[in-house]
Amino acid sequence: MGNMRLVYVIVFYYFGLVTGVHISNLNDSCIRCLCYVTGCDLSHGCSQGYCGPFYISRVYWVDAGKPTLPDDNPERKEAFEDCARDYHCSVKIVENYMARFGKDCNKDGITNCFDYMMINHHGDGACTEPLYLTNLGRRRLQLYQQCRL
């Protein structure tokens, strides 16, 4: 029985390495909601320093560890833009960022999709600031409430 447990641990560890990062409460539904809140325009290239469906900045990408498309080099000049414009690669950026900076922004004892939305809006340092203070914040809060229904 002990050997079977060891096999299960090894298998789950291996799949964790292969499939990427697991962040509590950052599931597919939350990822879709985060995308919805930022506009989720799959045809959006780059404008005013923000790229792709999540409108990711270069600083956000760097903070996320510079993920890239398969076989790309993070030091290549266009690596950021190419990854951020690709939906699946941009999801990897968001997951990495949340793995690094995810926290309970609203102090309710749970780190969940609302907290990730706050981090996406404010960045890692100011996620406790209320959204209702700005027009963009109020709009994102409204969009978040729509997608969470």
Automatic annotation (TrEMBL):
<feature type="transmembrane region" description="Helical">
    <location>
        <begin position="7"/>
        <end position="26"/>
    </location>
</feature>
<dbReference type="GO" id="GO:0003796">
    <property type="term" value="F:lysozyme activity"/>
</dbReference>
<keyword id="KW-0081">Bacteriolytic enzyme</keyword>
<keyword id="KW-0326">Glycosidase</keyword>
<keyword id="KW-1015">Disulfide bond</keyword>
<keyword id="KW-0812">Transmembrane</keyword>
<feature type="disulfide bond">
    <location>
        <begin position="83"/>
        <end position="89"/>
    </location>
</feature>
<dbReference type="GO" id="GO:0031640">
    <property type="term" value="P:killing of cells of another organism"/>
</dbReference>
<feature type="disulfide bond">
    <location>
        <begin position="30"/>
        <end position="113"/>
    </location>
</feature>
<dbReference type="GO" id="GO:0042742">
    <property type="term" value="P:defense response to bacterium"/>
</dbReference>
<keyword id="KW-0378">Hydrolase</keyword>
<dbReference type="InterPro" id="IPR008597">
    <property type="entry name" value="Invert_lysozyme"/>
</dbReference>
<protein>
    <recommendedName>
        <fullName>lysozyme</fullName>
        <ecNumber>3.2.1.17</ecNumber>
    </recommendedName>
</protein>
<feature type="disulfide bond">
    <location>
        <begin position="46"/>
        <end position="51"/>
    </location>
</feature>
<keyword id="KW-0472">Membrane</keyword>
<keyword id="KW-0929">Antimicrobial</keyword>
<keyword id="KW-1133">Transmembrane helix</keyword>
<dbReference type="Pfam" id="PF05497">
    <property type="entry name" value="Destabilase"/>
</dbReference>
